[in-house]
């Protein structure tokens, strides 16, 4: 009898915990990702309710890469996104500057009959004065015309002049118009980088869809959310780079 009473004594707390789980709508632990992901799901629901109370709609999630390594490599996805950001930084540093230097021409891509090559692999680039860069195409004279076209179409506001196998590139004066042209170029470059970022995201999301019949919907939702957060973070970093570059160019 005493044992029965003790069991009855615990019944209200058991019912309370059971009803709490029903009210919260907590799903069972998803197959394949373990109790840790289940805990993240609970955190997600509590955070969502808390966020709504504060008038916020965004919920942060953070899944350990080790928990879902059999589904997707989140670290690799993040590295691919950061590589796009770094490429934008390099482009800004190399190609979008008020003062055009010889180094800015190094990686202009020249399309030849034998393929695509950086300009510095076809010609010798040197700065003769602050107002003049010279490209010596003696080693590949047949590519002189293609190199001239690539320089002219580089978006750097350059107007090269050809003398045999020598390409002379006058450096334009730093006018307000030139600064605004560079700012537009920076914006275009940022948009292209964001497009590349979206491709990384789309590739990852497409990979996740292959597992829809193998893991729970909540697991897929969390992973998609994680990937979107990485995308948003990289895009925000690009916006900061663009703002800084625009300020540098326009003052």
UniProtKB/TrEMBL annotation:
Origin superkingdom: Eukaryota
Cellular component, GO, one term: mitochondrion
Keywords: Cytoplasm, Mitochondrion, Protein biosynthesis, Transit peptide
MF annotations from Gene Ontology: ribosomal large subunit binding
Predominant cellular place of this UniProt entry's protein: mitochondrion
Subcellular location(s) per record: Mitochondrion
Annotated GO biological process: translation
InterPro entries in alphabetical order: Ribosome_recyc_fac, Ribosome_recyc_fac_dom, RRF_sf
Signal peptide annotation: none
Every Ribosome recycling factor domain range: 88-250
Pfam family for this entry, one: RRF
Family of the protein in this entry: Belongs to the RRF family.
Protein name, per record: Ribosome-recycling factor, mitochondrial
Annotated organism of origin: Herpetotheres cachinnans (Laughing falcon)
